[in-house]
Write a structure and sequence with these properties.
CATH superfamily of the largest domain: SGNH hydrolase
Number of helices: 11
Radius of gyration: 27 Å
Structural class: alpha/beta
Strand content: 25-35%
Largest sheet: 24 strands, parallel
CATH architecture of the largest domain: 3-Layer(aba) Sandwich
Helix content: 10-25%
Number of domains: 3
């Protein structure tokens, strides 16, 4: 996969398209619909992988064919998931909560060999899991429809498709026959269509075509409609009574129904800053979710609340003048990690011009006192924690005064954080701004971060079997303003690895550190392919701070055996950086047994009181760069240090 991608466009489309549908009827039909015109709307839920999702698969096209007078659809597909991992992450449980009339179920792509902890064997566990979907859908009173996997557009020398998914498709066909389940044989129909189009003829329907790099698995919008037509045709053939649910020709995606809006005041919220509005807000969120998704709106006012739990396909919208304020009673957080919680969700968003206030002041002073006395710290909630979520958008809101971390996407994918402002006093302990943890495809842009700890901290505290060496990867941070805080950090938890990070066009003013990488023995992993460019720092204590020790860097240390959890830093590029410091240019300090290596400074200009300390670091290269110091050497070269290319003052 190329690292050049427009995450903002991808995630915006994914989230918006997954929120476009109005509330569902909720009634379940009998085993067959005998009327050509259902008396109530038929609800479809799509379950599967990225080839079913709204922007990378046929899901959006399927919605474009719907007759919304007769039917509606919620897409619960999740990219990168197999028949196994979709169950394990409880995404299927979330889909079942919708109690839809029809569940269209397609897996196979990620079931293929090569993905540890995700792959399945066609004739063994894949059969077991696909059968489970059928049985559990029927147990709800719903109608399962099995869909064989969309073909990969892989052609042989004879110009025909060579399917790598045939064994999985055969198993689905067998289950459909054994269980008397309607079957959409998308594998067969998509192979026939691709054979007809030919390899080059498939390109215009492929993801990446506009950029000149068409893929062979995912679809663009045009392809979504083309292959969704095959799904619709197969579905109507399998269940003729559903014909009235679909149009002969698709409508443009821009003309799909707008999302339903659920005003919390209609559910009893007062917004007076005195009365707890927890029940009303949660009821609005739950109702929105069970209606198929939409927008939960908080108009202007101050809403005092205990912890709340977001839902899939739902946007929490805070209007200008709306303040959602957390309770500061510790007893209210006995069963919640955070004030705002999201677990195993698809298509979730927090937007608007309002404020989420963590009311952290009451929590901070006991922590300060415990630190002064070197006592154990009391557990504190985060402000917003998003766990195992996909297609996430946080946009426009202000987050402030969290008891601890403000915004934590953990084990998430496809996350867009834009125009978010985060405030906490500079002495508010552990009030990190944004902490993406073991998450992938993250885009943070145009944010203002003014905190009492790490402004941004990328963490990777556990090994992800599906992404070995890169539990946190494909992350871009652009046009952000770093104010009080500990800077742009990685770590200290890096066990699962961090790779493919880009930080560009950012400013740092008055931060403790600028670019900061911290880890330690026992908690380390592989950190590589990290690029920082076009950075300006003013009055930053440590412009560069790379260390394989945490929390303190010892003066001396002895080599220890290298282990799987030893920190490895390599392939780091810092380009076009200008920094000033009243203290030091920074430090690069690795382990005696594992030096930090392959760090390139290109067009870097640092002015500081003291030079940069280098210890246990090799292949540190400066190109057209200099460090201007008031006293002493530009580089303070300690044990086992190798640096080349630095220009003299």
């Amino acid at each position: 996969m190329s690292f050049s991608f427009n995450i903002k466009q991808i995630i915006y489309c994914k989230v918006v398209c997954s929120l476009i549908l109005l509330s569902c009827a909720g009634s379940l039909l009998a085993d067959e619909i005998h009327s050509d015109s259902p008396a109530t709307k038929v609800t479809f839920v799509l379950v599967g992988d990225s080839t079913v999702a709204d922007t990378s698969g046929w899901g959006l096209g399927f919605k474009c064919f719907l007759n919304y007078d007769q039917a509606e659809c919620v897409n619960m597909a999740a990219g990168g998931r197999s028949s196994l991992s979709y169950l394990r992450e409880k995404r299927w449980d979330n889909a079942k909560e919708l109690k839809a009339d029809y569940y269209l179920i397609q897996f196979g792509h990620n079931d293929q060999p090569g993905k540890l902890g995700v792959s399945t064997e066609p004739d063994k566990d894949y059969r077991e899991y696909m059968t489970r979907y059928v049985d559990e859908a029927r147990a709800l009173g719903a109608h399962p429809v099995l869909v064989t996997p969309l073909t990969r557009r892989e052609f042989g020398n004879d110009g025909k498709i060579r399917s790598s998914l045939a064994r999985y498709a055969d198993v689905v066909r067998q289950i459909a026959e054994e269980k008397k389940v309607p079957l959409v044989d998308l594998q067969a129909s998509s192979i026939a269509l691709c054979d007809q189009l030919g390899k080059k003829g498939c390109f215009p329907y492929s993801d990446g075509f506009a950029e000149g790099n068409p893929g062979n698995t995912h679809l663009n919008d045009k392809g979504s409609v083309l292959f969704a037509k095959l799904v619709v045709q197969g579905l109507v053939k399998a269940v003729p009574s559903l014909k009235s649910c679909f149009l002969d020709q698709p409508v443009p995606s821009s003309e799909l129904p707008a999302p339903a809006v659920f005003n919390v005041r209609d559910f009893g919220a007062k917004g007076d800053g005195k009365t707890f509005d927890t029940e009303a807000i949660q009821k609005a969120l739950d109702t929105c979710w069970h209606a198929g998704g939409g927008i939960v709106r908080l108009p202007a006012g101050t809403y005092l609340s205990q912890p709340i739990f977001l839902r899939s396909q739902t946007t929490l919208q805070l209007d200008e003048g709306a303040i959602l304020r957390a309770s500061d009673n510790p007893q209210d957080f006995s069963d919640a990690r955070a004030f705002i919680n999201a677990n195993n969700l698809t298509g979730v968003a927090i937007t608007g011009k309002g404020t989420i206030d963590g009311a952290g002041a009451k929590w901070w002073e006991p922590v300060r006192e415990a630190k002064r006395l070197d006592q154990q710290l009391r557990r504190r909630p985060r402000l917003v924690v998003l766990s195992w979520c996909m297609y996430v958008r946080v946009e426009g809101v202000t987050l402030e005064n969290s008891p601890s971390f403000h915004l934590v996407p953990s084990d998430c994918e496809d996350v867009e954080i834009e125009n978010v402002t985060i405030h906490a006093p500079a002495d508010a302990p552990n009030t990190d701004g944004i902490d993406p943890s073991a998450s992938r495809y993250i885009h943070i842009v145009n944010c203002v971060l003014d905190t009492g700890d790490d402004n941004i901290a990328i963490k990777s505290g556990h090994i992800d079997l599906a992404h070995p060496g890169g539990a946190a990867e494909h992350i871009t941070i652009t046009n952000c303003m770093f104010l009080h805080g500990h800077g742009m950090s990685i770590g200290s938890e890096t066990l699962g690895g961090v790779r493919d990070l880009r930080v560009e066009h950012c400013t740092f003013t008055g931060t403790t550190s600028g670019i900061r990488i911290k880890s330690r023995r026992g908690h380390g992993g592989l950190l590589e392919n990290l690029v920082y460019s076009d950075i300006t720092m003013t009055n930053v204590d440590f412009p560069i701070y790379f260390t394989s020790y945490y929390p303190r860097v010892p003066q001396k240390d002895k080599a220890q055996p290298v282990a799987e959890d030893s920190p490895v830093f390599r392939k780091i590029v810092i380009r076009n950086l200008t920094a000033s410091s009243s203290k030091t240019a920074g430090m690069i300090v690795g382990l005696p047994e594992l030096p930090i290596e392959n760090v390139v400074f290109e067009n870097v200009y640092i002015t500081a009181s003291k030079g940069m300390t280098v210890r246990n670091a090799g292949e540190i290269k400066f190109r057209q760069s200099t460090i201007r110091v008031q006293t002493g050497a530009q580089l303070i070269m300690e044990t086992n240090a190798s640096v080349t290319g630095l220009q003299s003052n």
